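[Target chain]
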Amino acid sequence: MKSDRWPSVPVRRLGTVVGGGTPTADSAHWDGGIPFVTPPDLRPVVGGVVHTTQRTLTAEGVAAGSSIVPEGSVLLSIRAPIGYVARTSSAMAFNQGCRAIVPFGGTSAHYLTYALVAAGAELASLGRGTTFMELSAAQMAALELPVPSLEEQRAIADYLDRETGRIDNLIEEQQRLIEMLRERRAAVVSSAVTPTDSWVCHRIKHIGKTSLGKMLDAGRAVRDGDQPKPYVRAADVRADGSVNLVDLNEMPFSDAEMKVFDLRAGDVLLIEGGATVGRPGFMFEPAPGIAFQKTVNRLRVGPETDARFVYWSMLRLYESAYYANHYGSVSFVHLTGEKLREIELHLPLLDEQRAIATYLDEQTARIDALIAETERFVELARERRSALIAATVTGQIDVREMA
């Protein structure tokens, strides 16, 4: 990162670079009074100050395998991922996923933090590794940053605190709006499919057929006649209820299996297990030549039931934590075919099912459009924030004119 106004200086001339480490699991090393920083601790405070950490060390723990730096040092994550950066609010230890810079007298830690934030893309590009990307000590020390006078470093940091604070407040307001819109969407769905006295309770096994997808068996030999075919898995059942049908994984299927595991318009797909167990997706169009895998259940309703109404009913169950409440810890819940077939749904007459489904399609589409518009605004604000930091630490914005 270069500036037309100021010289570029390697990090090693701006402060002492210190590597981190993690002591053994010996209980004498942990739960002391010294904050122990790892990359996840830096993530929520990038560009700011780290005050708290998930874990702490004792002095014995620091001596046994970590490092400690004073208040006002700058910590940078060097792997998983590269580029989280924040200042320390007190003396802190840190693990091998971070490296610290203890600034020399002519360097403002505050400014240095912003400069490293602006250099994030360059830092990430320097990462090397096979298992994971990591920034070496030598690469970090050699990174060149534009460095104005100490007085101007402080002025830049103060300016960026003020301006990024305004942007951050705006982003927080928009994120609260998104959360409110999502709550509103869930309330609209819940209200519309809450049964009245006239609705009739049916178990799913009485309104349609369920099938679990084909098991993925990477070690099995391909049989004669099998052909690689794309398949839908849990990750393809999206949070918005759509189903991804492009760039799918493939595995061998016979012609007979493709008939068993086919996907038609009106199929409701339900994630079989994991943190999103029971989340439904809906097939708006047929998907010839595409099957589905064992992480997904397919529900195909009969002619007396509206499939879209069933989708909204299943979404209501998912959003009301039905599976965790009925089957215990959600982490270990599996929506087997047997469980799925025994779930009870309350259904009005078919015409009313269709009317409710149409109403929900219209209402949720309006809310989804507002959410998408707000998310774009947040994205633009974040881009504006990054551009502002880069322009200021490279001297394109003269903060002396802002005083």
